[in-house]
Amino acid sequence: MWPGVRVVNSFGQSETFYDSAYEVPAGVHDEGPVPIGSPLDGVRMYVLGPNLRPVPVGVAGELYVGGEVVGRGYRDRGDLTASRFVADPFGAEPGGRLYRTGDLVRWIEPRPGADGGPVLEYVGRADVQVKVRGIRIEPGEVEAALEAHPAVDRAVVVAHGTDAARQLVAYVVPARTAGRAAPAPDPDQLRHHAGERLPDFMVPAVIMVLDHFPLTPNGKLDRRALPAPESAARPYRAPRNPREQVLADIVADVLGRERVGIDDDFFALGGESLRATRLVARVRAAMDAEFPITAVFESPTVAGLAARLTEGATRPPLTAAERPERVPLSYAQQRLWFIHQYEGPSATYNIPLAVRLPGDVDRAVLEAAVTDVIVRHESLRTLFTADASGVAHQHVLPPDRIRFELPRLDVAAADRDAAVTEVVQHPFDLATQLPIHGRLLRVAADGEGTGQTQLLVMVVHHIAGDGGSMSAFARDIARAAEARQAGHAPDWAPLPVQYPDYALWQRELLGDESDPDSLVGRQLAYWREELADVVQPMALPLDRPRPAVATFRGGMADFELRPGLLAELEKLALGRGATTSMVLQSAFAVLLARLGAGDDVVIGSPIAGRTDEALTDLIGFFVNTWVLRADLSGNPSFGTVLDRVRGKALAAYENQDLPFERLVELLNPDRSRAYHPLFQAMFVLQDAAWVEPARAESGWSLESAVTGTAKFDLMMTMNEVRAESGERTLAGHLEFALDLFDRETAEE
């Protein structure tokens, strides 16, 4: 500095005039950032974090300015004014305003030789976040990771492209040694370096090495002058050998993509636990090799999974089997048959489906189409009977005995819901009736019974199908109806196996529970330890005492998350190596704990159970239930809860073959007719395919249909939908037991 010259570093915005000033002592700040000082007279400055809470000294936060210097807003820009001028919670008088500067600062202790208290140091801007594939990313975090590489001096990260094609692009300048630039770093090595320090979605798709950064005349980075990247897409690396090629083809097919490179992340491309299970099954069938499902979470790329493959499948393949005279029930069917015998026919385990049909579809066409589907899937033409000793078995009717009748009923618009409910509450006699029932409702638009809208209302008993089956069910009916409308039978490929084949294979797969080395023996050992000493029933804020015998009467409270929240949930999941379902399960566990369930929260959750590729398009009862025991002890952060839930979920995926029904029998917990064994609350994240199961070109659309029952105290079901704005969001309902809760409580 020049003798006798005072240097002042001042800081401010047009909205507040000058806010602060700092006199720079000579010789003190030759290096490092220069503070911007303290507030001028009449100015109040706050360094705030989330929810307008002050942050400690030394911690960066956003700068808010108050006092007489604050302007009143932007002329004719009410939206912008509302976003930048906020209510002042710290002012002495009500009605005060703070200006949200968007600048990141922190309080620091004064430098040596300076007088007074802490001063402000400028850190950067808070609004430089970029959004890539719906995920908000701080470029500064990525830049810091790249600058940690010894061959990099400085790094700049920007988002390039628009919408779905947007990708992160990094520009780096090599480090200098003895005044000379070091050899240019290798971009692939830098990406690997960043990948070891950052979540995959934060690793730049393209890294460009520059001699120097372009600068504006006043010496700042000129971002507009940065060269365009050679490719804004993530570099595609083709499979290097036949093994990787087959694996890449399977991953692409499971994800519905044209191609997948060996470095592409399974979950970043839309994968989740259901698709991960299917991926393992596809690899087992196509390559006679396998890896544990946890490998998909730990090494979610083709290159990583190829290294985890173990030659030779460890379980018998599911094929059409030679059938004994009496085919046993699957374990899941066995429990439902017992409940049916014990409680009698009811709608508790009915699966409803209501579809709005375009135009005046001919009833004979629909009857023929449903008959085609029943003939195609043996589970839908099975009766359940017991021998003299009381052991139940499956009795599959031959195709020539199947003739499905679909009565048509004209109803007024006001009676539509009641008519649908009457159909889906049909009580099945499983020994004498097929487990499928339906009606064609012609709903009058004018209330006079003239019939303007047609609803195909179907119900399948759970003993013959599950939620995953209903997509194939509606799809096959749509295809068969299209064929019958054209005057011919549907031309579809034969199914590789039928449900009786699965029931026989399941018993072979599991083995003998008395053998500790069998699959059932190993998985039973895990669940016996995991579920030891579970307290039942879970404490919940009931509106009335629990009855001695549950009636299974239920209600529903609908809800929808705000648009944009799903993208934030997916970002959180990707950043923690989890799935969106795990995030939501964690949130549900926290909710139940806050409602009084305590620190040991037990939740049921369905798992598809289609662990063999042959089951993909088959209708049947495959879904299994796993028990999540969430540990909320020790006042954990939500991140800690999520990590715990993720660990429990991955372990459950590895032990998902043991049927829940068999698990209850073997664990033999205290049983009661008042509540469900082991857990009383369930969480379900529905596959998107179940939301709109019929083919789009058929013109069919899903309608609401509820049975008015509740299997559990509480069951929260969520599925992906499109908000009115077009954004993806989650909607669903909370099913609640009327024995225990009022609707107002459920809605709250």
Can you walk me through this structure?
The protein is α+β, with helices and mostly antiparallel strands and 748 residues long. 28% of the residues lie in helices and 24% in strands. Strands 4, 5, 6, 7 and 8 form a five-stranded antiparallel sheet that branches. Strands 22-23-24-19-29 form a five-stranded mixed sheet, with helices on both faces. Strands 25-31-30-28 form a four-stranded mixed sheet. Helix 4 (242-255) packs antiparallel against helix 5, helix 9 packs across helix 11 (467-485) and helix 15 (580-597) crosses helix 16. The longest helix is centred in the middle third of the chain and has 19 residues, at 467-485. The chain is globular.
Per-chain topology:
Layout: E1 7-13, E2 17-24, E3 38-39, E4 43-48, E5 61-67, H1 78-84, E6 85-87, E7 97-108, E8 119-125, E9 130-132, E10 135-137, H2 139-147, E11 152-160, E12 167-174, E13 176-177, E14 180-181, H3 187-195, E15 206-209, H4 242-255, H5 273-287, E16 289-290, H6 293-298, H7 302-306, E17 310-311, E18 327-328, H8 331-343, E19 350-357, H9 363-376, E20 382-386, E21 392-396, E22 408-411, H10 416-424, E23 436-443, E24 453-461, H11 467-485, H12 499-510, H13 519-530, E25 554-560, H14 565-575, H15 580-597, E26 600-607, E27 624-631, H16 638-654, H17 660-667, E28 681-685, H18 688-691, E29 701-703, E30 714-722, E31 728-737, H19 743-747
Q: What are its keywords?
A:
five-stranded mixed β-sheet, alpha+beta, five-stranded antiparallel β-sheet, 28% helix, 748 residues
